[in-house]
Amino acid sequence: MVSVLLLYAFAAFSQDTLSFRTEFQDVPPKYCIVNGVSSGISYEIMKFVEEKSGYHFNYEERMVPLARVSRNMETGVMDIQFGLQNTPERERTMTFGPALYDIRFVGVMRADDPDTYASLSDIVRSKVKVLVPSGTGVAAALRLVPDLVLDEGARSAEADLAMLRYGRGKILIYHNLTVNYLLSLPENAGIFKKVLIDFEGREGLVGVSQYLVYAKDFPASAQDRINRIIAEAVESGELAKITGKYLR
Questions:
Q1: In CATH, what number does 105-195 get?
Q2: Cis omega (within 30 of 0) on the bond before 29?
Q3: Strands 24-25 and 63-64
């Protein structure tokens, strides 16, 4: 009896000590902090996995630029991320788990801008400045488009919107998840418009998923357990209940 209790105590202790480092991407509504309360699609998935697995995720409740998030995953400073686009560069330095949700890319322009662009080729031909947050998957994909005038100076979509507001760019290209969130904010009402762009089947710009991602040295057993939790949540519909609140 004593040996059984000791074994149980050791198992519980071991589970409690399995802690993994993560951080909040400065990509709302993946993560949001409003009046000291954290939320967001990736945040909710993280807390769901934490509850189901018994593992603990260590993080500071502060927003971190995506370029730094990626760098910290590449170097092993962080252990896990809930929602990153797969790129060849990331594939070399991180381990990709299952897809968590899908996004699509759209454009944002000033509401008073009379110009229109139906396709990526139209934008290239016009030689206008395209804004995109640095360190993002869409930036990596757009970088491969010949003759596209690209500005990756800003660290977030919010910063790019500020540049767009003051005429320091013609169009922002980013995913619908964040664009819909930002354009719904009262301070942006009536200033910007969302535009649909034909990306002409370019890889990394069409049918893009956001993945569960691990550092290369993440324990294989824990990775398998988390992957199973996600697979079961997909089958049961629990994952869709979370993502459906944000993707409409």
A1: 3.40.190.10
A2: yes
A3: parallel
